[in-house]
């Protein structure tokens, strides 16, 4: 059984928006053994939508369509599906209740245009949207089962998991090919070097396909496998994964897609340790990442985002002489910031950044891309200077923050469990 | 004249890679007055490639195809184009020299598989690649002119600008349509309500098309226009923009795509004012946004990310009695945090957040999604309680941070320029 994905919307057609939904859907479908053969995007144009839906209905067995389910006049998916299937739009009570419940929850008045969202092609099945106003629907067109989902990524993702994947898997039945992907997240190796280290995996483990994906500033090494025999596939992927982890060593952050902040958070928890941050050039990004993790209040106590020198002195207790002698971007200043925040926060560890994210402020001695990371732990403290050649402010902020957290991660690993 | 975009490759088909090339190409084509009606992606499958190329050749006048020009066996674009056009692959000396020059420049040995890259469909025109090994080519299929480019983004972008756009513009000739888009960024209105407020724009300004885009937690209202007469188009879009801005009122953050942090930063600069932040539930996100803006050190002094109560007391000077009496999430606590950070940072304004981002920590009285924002300015200070029903930690962090910055934005607007 083959499937296709259709993304609708003028923003996608005109290039104002990158369609990341289709890649997400394709990955999930393939993981569940459903072959994806084509993605298409068209704009909010009724005749284009109708003809594209008919083509898809003629070509494949299953399809996921995103976008065009909202309340406004350029939301045309239900209308296009009805025309393509030769049926009328009909008021669906369950869809109306879906829309209504959302407004009740928000305690907001429902508008007349939201009522439009309850008009769906006659004979279609409602796909309940628990996180937004737009219910989806499923409809059979020719031999093809079409699933219509909202374009808002988090709504689409939830409904894909809740409704679409289970029905597709059941439609597919015994024809299912299992596929798996193992994602190893690394930091500190450029993509080409990471690629060279693991290039041998395809030869050593037949049936495994290698892919590298830059998720700046992390590099993801992905191992793909496909087989009818799920147990064999799992065994093969486990062995290939073990080999790959060995090649990558301490550059591996996680082997299950977990991000740096989740890994660092767990290492802190396991050691009953707490952290305080002092951020200059990273501007709160390290704190924001760490606090993205639910439950982070168990180990994250405080970050002083000290952009100005007075804040470094008053809040963190950095000595004015140090700032005068070395400047704000220096190993010694960074070390004092880390020690200061450890003291102020009363935390087990202190971590700091001070650097030049750009675009201005660079000098010959300290060009844009220079960062000093300060570390203060129970037994020692140090400052370390690093340089990254990216030249872009937002990239620098990210790689500075990631590099500092990576220093903390390695110190926590070396400290062992307490 | 209509155009399409085709992205090829198993990485895109399977979702391992998000296709950002097609959005880039669509945007450039539309900017140059070339209408894009469809994007398609298919994998490295010769029969699929051939049939897709033939369909495109039957449907439109021009197309850009990316990917499949490399040296490996799964690079099939030249072969597929030759089959679709009914011609042979032929050795192209100019293509060979393109490949060879790249290896010479980098002093690397050229492999036999690279020689394959010089075999292109007979009768095709070489598109020189100055930054990579894969030359592109152009070929006429039926009534359609097809341009084949590498999938590597920076190679594709260079060759699109150098070769494809100029030839497309010249093919299009007098038929060129200019297109424009005006992006109005709003905060504080749900999408449906924003849509209703501006729904009349299409009727009032014929030729203008309306689009709404949720860029959580902001809503973008987009006005699209297309016309042969660029001056007329600009005038019409300006008038439609003025009308739309009036409907949206103070919910408008910017009318040029600028983000909240850029707007707030400029308002502070214009008033020679500075800001200090005290962040609990937003965990550094407000600081990170504000410091994403180059030059923000001119007005951003400090953020105290005070997750723990001791940090709120020690760093910000919140009174222990206040915390005891009202708890951390309360208008009064938020107000004291804002006043405290204004004092500690020595800033003109202080802004604070304290709330419950979830997933845990909610109560009946203060459910997940509750945030208290504190504001302290030169003339007054206050705390305000807000509630958002999203229930997801990362969404709550974002909307809490945006809501707090929006309170600051409105206070700055009311303060006028100094």
List the helices and strands and how they pair.
Two copies of one chain form a homodimer.
Chain A: E1 2-8, H1 10-13, H2 21-31, E2 35-42, H3 46-59, E3 62-66, H4 77-85, E4 89-91, H5 93-106, H6 112-115, E5 119-121, E6 125-127, E7 136-141, E8 144-149, H7 153-172, E9 178-186, H8 191-198, H9 201-204, E10 209-215, E11 218-227, H10 230-248, E12 252-254, H11 260-270, E13 275-279, H12 285-291, E14 300-306, H13 309-316, H14 320-326, H15 331-345, E15 349-355, E16 370-376, E17 381-387, H16 393-415
Parallel strand pairs in A: 1-2, 1-3, 3-8, 13-14, 13-15
Antiparallel strand pairs in A: 4-5, 6-7, 7-8, 9-11, 9-12, 10-11, 15-16, 16-17
What would your notes on this structure say?
Two copies of one chain form a homodimer. In chain A, a hairpin with a 2-residue loop joins β10 and β11. Chain A is an alpha/beta fold and 418 residues long. In chain A, the strands form four sheets. Chain A has a six-stranded mixed sheet with strand order 2-1-3-8-7-6, sandwiched between helices. Chain A has three domains: 2-175, MoaB/Mog-like domain (Molybdenum Cofactor Biosythetic Enzyme, Chain A, 3-Layer(aba) Sandwich); 178-254, Alpha-Beta Plaits (2-Layer Sandwich), CATH 3.30.70; 260-415, Maf protein (Alpha-Beta Complex). Chain A is built from 16 helices and 17 strands. Chain A has helices at 10-13, 21-31, 46-59, 77-85, 93-106, 112-115, 153-172, 191-198, 201-204, 230-248, 260-270, 285-291, 309-316, 320-326, 331-345, 393-415, and strands spanning 2-8, 35-42, 62-66, 89-91, 119-121, 125-127, 136-141, 144-149, 178-186, 209-215, 218-227, 252-254, 275-279, 300-306, 349-355, 370-376, 381-387. The model of chain A has no long low-confidence stretch (mean pLDDT 93). Chain A starts with a strand and ends with a helix. At the A-B interface, α1, α2, β2, α12 and β14 of A face α1, α2, β2, α8 and β10 of B.
């Amino acid at each position: 059984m083959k499937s296709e994905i259709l993304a609708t919307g003028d923003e996608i057609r005109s290039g104002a928006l990158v369609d990341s939904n289709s890649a997400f859907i394709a990955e999930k479908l393939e993981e569940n053994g459903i072959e994806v053969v084509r993605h298409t995007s068209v704009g909010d144009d009724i005749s284009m939508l109708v003809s594209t839906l008919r083509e898809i209905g003629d070509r494949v067995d299953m399809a996921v369509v995103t976008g065009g389910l909202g309340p406004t006049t350029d939301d045309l998916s239900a209308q296009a599906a009805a025309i393509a299937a030769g049926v009328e739009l009909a008021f669906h009570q369950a869809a109306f209740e879906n829309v209504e419940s959302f407004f009740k929850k928000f305690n907001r008045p429902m508008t007349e245009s939201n009522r439009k969202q309850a008009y769906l092609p006659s004979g279609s099945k409602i796909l309940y949207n628990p996180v937004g106003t737009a219910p989806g629907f499923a409809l059979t067109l020719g031999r093809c089962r079409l699933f219509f989902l909202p374009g808002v990524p988090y709504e689409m993702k939830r409904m894909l998991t809740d409704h679409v994947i289970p029905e597709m898997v059941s439609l597919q039945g015994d024809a299912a090919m299992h596929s798996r992907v193992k994602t190893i997240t690394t930091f500190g190796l450029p993509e080409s070097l990471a690629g060279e280290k693991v290039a041998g995996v395809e030869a050593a483990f037949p049936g495994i396909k290698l892919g590298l994906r830059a998720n700046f500033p992390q590099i993801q090494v992905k191992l793909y496998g496909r087989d009818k025999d799920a147990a064999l596939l799992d065994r093969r992927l486990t062995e290939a994964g073990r080999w790959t982890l060995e090649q990558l060593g301490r550059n591996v952050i996680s082997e299950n897609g977990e991000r740096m902040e989740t890994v660092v958070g767990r290492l802190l928890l396991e050691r009953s340790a707490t952290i305080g941050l002092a951020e200059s050039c990273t501007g709160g990004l390290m704190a924001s990442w760490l606090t993205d993790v639910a439950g982070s209040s168990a180990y994250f106590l405080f970050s002083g985002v000290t952009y100005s020198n007075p804040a470094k002195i008053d809040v963190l207790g950095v000595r004015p002489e140090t700032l005068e002698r070395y400047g704000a971007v220096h190993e010694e200043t960074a070390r004092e910031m880390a020690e200061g925040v450890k003291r102020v926060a009363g935390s087990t560890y202190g971590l700091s950044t001070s650097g030049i994210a750009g675009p201005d402020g660079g000098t010959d001695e300290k060009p844009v891309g220079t960062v000093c990371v300060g570390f203060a732990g129970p037994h020692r403290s140090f400052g370390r200077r690093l340089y990254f050649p990216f030249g872009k402010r937002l990239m620098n902020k990210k790689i500075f923050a990631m590099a500092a957290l990576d220093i903390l991660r390695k110190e926590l690993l070396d400290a062992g469990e307490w």
